[in-house]
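User: Show me a protein chain along with its predicted structure.
Assistant: Here is one chain, sequence first, then C-alpha coordinates.
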Amino acid sequence: MSAVSSNPSPMSELPAASGTRRARITAVTSGKGGVGKTFVSANLAAALVRRGEKVLVLDADLGLANLDVVLNLFPKITLHDVFTGKHKLEEAVMAAPGGFHVLLAGSGMVEYSRLTPEVRDQLVDVIQQMRPRFDRILLDTGAGISDVVLYTVSLADEVLVVATPEPTSLTDAYATIKVLATTQGRRDLKLLVNQVTQTGEGRTIRGQLQQVVDRYVTPSLEAPLKLEFVGEIPVDAAVRDAVRRRQLMLECFPGSAAAQAVLAVATRLTS
Protein backbone atom coordinates (compact mmCIF):
# COMPACT_ATOMS: atom_id res chain seq x y z
CA MET A 1 0.00 0.00 0.00
CA SER A 2 1.25 3.45 -0.84
CA ALA A 3 0.96 6.09 1.84
CA VAL A 4 1.76 8.97 -0.47
CA SER A 5 -0.38 12.06 -0.46
CA SER A 6 0.44 15.48 -1.80
CA ASN A 7 -2.59 17.66 -1.24
CA PRO A 8 -4.38 18.89 1.84
CA SER A 9 -7.80 17.38 2.30
CA PRO A 10 -10.51 19.79 1.17
CA MET A 11 -12.84 21.27 3.72
CA SER A 12 -15.60 18.84 2.73
CA GLU A 13 -13.49 15.91 3.96
CA LEU A 14 -13.12 17.37 7.42
CA PRO A 15 -15.57 16.20 10.09
CA ALA A 16 -18.33 18.76 10.44
CA ALA A 17 -18.16 21.05 13.44
CA SER A 18 -20.55 20.02 16.18
CA GLY A 19 -21.96 22.13 18.95
CA THR A 20 -21.81 19.16 21.29
CA ARG A 21 -18.39 17.78 20.28
CA ARG A 22 -15.33 18.93 22.17
CA ALA A 23 -12.23 16.91 21.36
CA ARG A 24 -10.24 15.38 24.19
CA ILE A 25 -6.68 16.67 23.86
CA THR A 26 -3.89 14.18 24.52
CA ALA A 27 -0.29 15.37 24.52
CA VAL A 28 2.20 12.68 23.48
CA THR A 29 5.56 13.73 24.86
CA SER A 30 8.92 12.35 26.02
CA GLY A 31 11.94 13.36 28.03
CA LYS A 32 14.34 12.74 25.17
CA GLY A 33 14.26 12.20 21.43
CA GLY A 34 14.63 8.84 19.74
CA VAL A 35 12.10 6.95 21.85
CA GLY A 36 9.55 6.56 19.02
CA LYS A 37 7.15 9.29 20.13
CA THR A 38 6.05 10.37 16.65
CA PHE A 39 5.77 6.76 15.51
CA VAL A 40 3.56 6.09 18.52
CA SER A 41 1.44 9.18 17.82
CA ALA A 42 0.75 8.18 14.22
CA ASN A 43 -0.07 4.55 14.91
CA LEU A 44 -2.06 5.39 18.03
CA ALA A 45 -4.15 7.77 15.94
CA ALA A 46 -4.95 4.94 13.51
CA ALA A 47 -5.80 2.65 16.43
CA LEU A 48 -8.13 5.26 17.95
CA VAL A 49 -9.91 5.58 14.60
CA ARG A 50 -10.56 1.84 14.76
CA ARG A 51 -12.12 2.49 18.15
CA GLY A 52 -14.59 4.82 16.46
CA GLU A 53 -12.98 8.19 17.17
CA LYS A 54 -12.48 11.06 14.76
CA VAL A 55 -8.82 11.95 15.30
CA LEU A 56 -6.54 14.84 14.42
CA VAL A 57 -2.77 14.67 14.98
CA LEU A 58 -1.20 18.09 15.37
CA ASP A 59 2.54 18.10 14.70
CA ALA A 60 3.48 20.31 17.63
CA ASP A 61 7.24 19.83 17.31
CA LEU A 62 7.30 23.14 15.49
CA GLY A 63 11.05 23.39 15.05
CA LEU A 64 11.92 19.77 14.18
CA ALA A 65 8.73 18.38 12.70
CA ASN A 66 8.90 14.89 11.20
CA LEU A 67 5.36 13.52 11.26
CA ASP A 68 5.26 14.04 7.49
CA VAL A 69 8.27 11.73 7.11
CA VAL A 70 6.71 8.96 9.21
CA LEU A 71 3.51 9.12 7.13
CA ASN A 72 5.21 9.78 3.77
CA LEU A 73 3.16 12.93 3.25
CA PHE A 74 4.21 15.90 1.16
CA PRO A 75 2.22 18.90 2.36
CA LYS A 76 1.90 21.97 0.19
CA ILE A 77 0.47 23.93 3.11
CA THR A 78 1.73 23.70 6.71
CA LEU A 79 1.06 25.34 10.06
CA HIS A 80 3.77 27.82 9.17
CA ASP A 81 1.63 29.03 6.27
CA VAL A 82 -1.34 29.33 8.62
CA PHE A 83 0.65 31.20 11.28
CA THR A 84 1.95 33.66 8.68
CA GLY A 85 -1.53 34.25 7.27
CA LYS A 86 -0.81 32.80 3.82
CA HIS A 87 -3.52 30.15 4.09
CA LYS A 88 -6.57 29.34 6.17
CA LEU A 89 -6.32 26.67 8.83
CA GLU A 90 -8.75 24.35 7.05
CA GLU A 91 -6.49 24.34 4.00
CA ALA A 92 -3.62 22.89 6.02
CA VAL A 93 -5.54 19.87 7.32
CA MET A 94 -4.63 16.70 5.43
CA ALA A 95 -6.24 13.28 5.34
CA ALA A 96 -3.65 10.70 6.42
CA PRO A 97 -3.38 6.94 5.96
CA GLY A 98 -5.25 5.18 8.73
CA GLY A 99 -8.36 7.33 8.51
CA PHE A 100 -7.26 10.25 10.66
CA HIS A 101 -6.29 13.85 9.82
CA VAL A 102 -3.06 15.73 10.39
CA LEU A 103 -1.85 19.29 10.75
CA LEU A 104 1.79 19.31 9.75
CA ALA A 105 4.44 21.81 10.79
CA GLY A 106 7.23 22.97 8.49
CA SER A 107 10.54 21.40 9.52
CA GLY A 108 13.54 23.52 10.43
CA MET A 109 11.57 26.64 11.35
CA VAL A 110 14.04 28.33 13.69
CA GLU A 111 11.54 30.99 14.64
CA TYR A 112 9.45 28.37 16.44
CA SER A 113 12.31 27.09 18.59
CA ARG A 114 11.42 29.65 21.25
CA LEU A 115 8.06 30.52 22.71
CA THR A 116 6.63 33.93 21.89
CA PRO A 117 3.23 35.39 22.82
CA GLU A 118 2.28 35.16 19.16
CA VAL A 119 3.06 31.43 18.96
CA ARG A 120 1.10 30.87 22.19
CA ASP A 121 -1.96 32.59 20.78
CA GLN A 122 -1.71 30.81 17.44
CA LEU A 123 -1.49 27.35 19.03
CA VAL A 124 -4.51 28.04 21.21
CA ASP A 125 -6.47 29.37 18.25
CA VAL A 126 -5.66 26.30 16.12
CA ILE A 127 -6.82 23.92 18.83
CA GLN A 128 -9.99 25.85 19.56
CA GLN A 129 -10.96 25.92 15.88
CA MET A 130 -10.38 22.18 15.45
CA ARG A 131 -11.86 21.00 18.73
CA PRO A 132 -15.52 20.93 17.59
CA ARG A 133 -14.59 18.79 14.57
CA PHE A 134 -12.88 15.86 16.28
CA ASP A 135 -13.29 13.46 19.18
CA ARG A 136 -9.58 13.55 19.98
CA ILE A 137 -6.62 15.74 19.15
CA LEU A 138 -3.18 14.19 19.63
CA LEU A 139 -0.43 16.77 20.17
CA ASP A 140 2.83 15.23 18.96
CA THR A 141 5.14 17.47 20.98
CA GLY A 142 8.86 17.97 20.85
CA ALA A 143 11.08 16.14 23.33
CA GLY A 144 12.40 17.59 26.56
CA ILE A 145 11.26 20.45 28.77
CA SER A 146 11.73 23.54 26.64
CA ASP A 147 9.23 26.40 26.96
CA VAL A 148 7.59 25.42 23.66
CA VAL A 149 7.13 21.79 24.71
CA LEU A 150 5.85 22.63 28.19
CA TYR A 151 3.39 25.20 26.89
CA THR A 152 2.07 22.77 24.27
CA VAL A 153 1.61 20.09 26.93
CA SER A 154 -0.21 22.61 29.15
CA LEU A 155 -2.96 22.82 26.52
CA ALA A 156 -3.78 19.10 26.87
CA ASP A 157 -6.44 17.39 28.98
CA GLU A 158 -4.13 14.44 29.54
CA VAL A 159 -0.46 13.63 29.00
CA LEU A 160 1.04 10.42 27.63
CA VAL A 161 4.76 10.13 28.40
CA VAL A 162 6.66 7.80 26.09
CA ALA A 163 9.87 6.24 27.39
CA THR A 164 12.14 3.29 26.65
CA PRO A 165 13.96 1.02 29.12
CA GLU A 166 17.28 2.79 28.44
CA PRO A 167 18.66 4.55 31.54
CA THR A 168 18.98 7.91 29.76
CA SER A 169 15.36 7.73 28.61
CA LEU A 170 14.14 6.89 32.11
CA THR A 171 16.19 9.69 33.65
CA ASP A 172 14.76 12.20 31.21
CA ALA A 173 11.25 10.80 31.61
CA TYR A 174 11.52 11.33 35.36
CA ALA A 175 12.70 14.92 34.79
CA THR A 176 9.71 15.56 32.53
CA ILE A 177 7.29 14.01 35.01
CA LYS A 178 8.72 16.12 37.84
CA VAL A 179 8.46 19.36 35.88
CA LEU A 180 4.87 18.64 34.79
CA ALA A 181 3.89 17.88 38.37
CA THR A 182 5.54 20.94 39.89
CA THR A 183 4.85 23.58 37.22
CA GLN A 184 1.50 22.46 35.78
CA GLY A 185 -0.09 20.78 38.76
CA ARG A 186 -0.38 17.47 36.96
CA ARG A 187 -1.37 14.67 39.34
CA ASP A 188 -2.19 11.97 36.80
CA LEU A 189 0.19 11.13 33.96
CA LYS A 190 0.00 8.20 31.58
CA LEU A 191 3.11 6.15 30.80
CA LEU A 192 3.83 4.09 27.69
CA VAL A 193 7.05 2.10 27.57
CA ASN A 194 8.36 1.47 24.06
CA GLN A 195 10.96 -1.05 22.85
CA VAL A 196 10.65 -3.53 25.72
CA THR A 197 12.48 -6.83 25.35
CA GLN A 198 10.29 -8.96 27.59
CA THR A 199 6.67 -9.02 28.66
CA GLY A 200 6.06 -7.12 31.87
CA GLU A 201 9.13 -4.93 31.58
CA GLY A 202 7.02 -1.82 31.03
CA ARG A 203 4.95 -2.37 34.15
CA THR A 204 8.14 -2.94 36.17
CA ILE A 205 9.56 0.34 34.88
CA ARG A 206 6.36 2.13 35.79
CA GLY A 207 6.72 0.77 39.32
CA GLN A 208 10.33 1.96 39.55
CA LEU A 209 9.45 5.44 38.31
CA GLN A 210 6.48 5.62 40.69
CA GLN A 211 8.76 4.77 43.62
CA VAL A 212 11.18 7.54 42.71
CA VAL A 213 8.30 9.99 42.25
CA ASP A 214 6.80 9.01 45.60
CA ARG A 215 10.12 9.58 47.32
CA TYR A 216 11.39 12.75 45.69
CA VAL A 217 8.41 14.53 44.09
CA THR A 218 5.21 13.77 45.99
CA PRO A 219 6.45 15.12 49.38
CA SER A 220 6.54 18.64 47.90
CA LEU A 221 3.05 18.34 46.38
CA GLU A 222 -0.35 18.91 47.92
CA ALA A 223 -1.58 15.61 46.47
CA PRO A 224 0.32 12.52 45.28
CA LEU A 225 1.28 12.08 41.63
CA LYS A 226 0.05 8.89 39.99
CA LEU A 227 1.64 7.29 36.96
CA GLU A 228 -0.91 5.27 35.03
CA PHE A 229 0.61 2.46 32.98
CA VAL A 230 -1.23 2.27 29.66
CA GLY A 231 0.93 -0.30 27.92
CA GLU A 232 4.22 -1.47 26.50
CA ILE A 233 5.35 -1.97 22.91
CA PRO A 234 7.86 -4.77 22.30
CA VAL A 235 10.96 -4.58 20.18
CA ASP A 236 9.65 -5.80 16.83
CA ALA A 237 11.21 -5.98 13.37
CA ALA A 238 7.86 -4.80 12.01
CA VAL A 239 8.47 -1.39 13.57
CA ARG A 240 11.77 -0.94 11.76
CA ASP A 241 10.31 -2.16 8.49
CA ALA A 242 7.30 0.14 8.74
CA VAL A 243 9.53 3.13 9.45
CA ARG A 244 11.70 2.32 6.44
CA ARG A 245 8.61 2.01 4.25
CA ARG A 246 7.20 5.23 5.73
CA GLN A 247 3.93 3.44 6.38
CA LEU A 248 1.72 2.90 9.38
CA MET A 249 2.62 -0.32 11.14
CA LEU A 250 -1.08 -0.94 11.78
CA GLU A 251 -1.67 -1.05 8.03
CA CYS A 252 1.36 -2.88 6.67
CA PHE A 253 1.94 -5.25 9.63
CA PRO A 254 -1.43 -5.37 11.44
CA GLY A 255 -0.76 -8.77 12.98
CA SER A 256 2.62 -7.88 14.45
CA ALA A 257 3.15 -7.89 18.20
CA ALA A 258 3.89 -4.16 18.21
CA ALA A 259 0.72 -3.34 16.26
CA GLN A 260 -1.39 -5.37 18.64
CA ALA A 261 0.25 -3.57 21.56
CA VAL A 262 -0.69 -0.17 20.10
CA LEU A 263 -4.29 -1.33 19.66
CA ALA A 264 -4.32 -2.34 23.31
CA VAL A 265 -3.13 1.12 24.33
CA ALA A 266 -5.95 2.69 22.30
CA THR A 267 -8.44 0.43 24.07
CA ARG A 268 -7.17 1.58 27.47
CA LEU A 269 -7.35 5.24 26.45
CA THR A 270 -10.97 4.93 25.33
CA SER A 271 -12.29 2.66 28.08
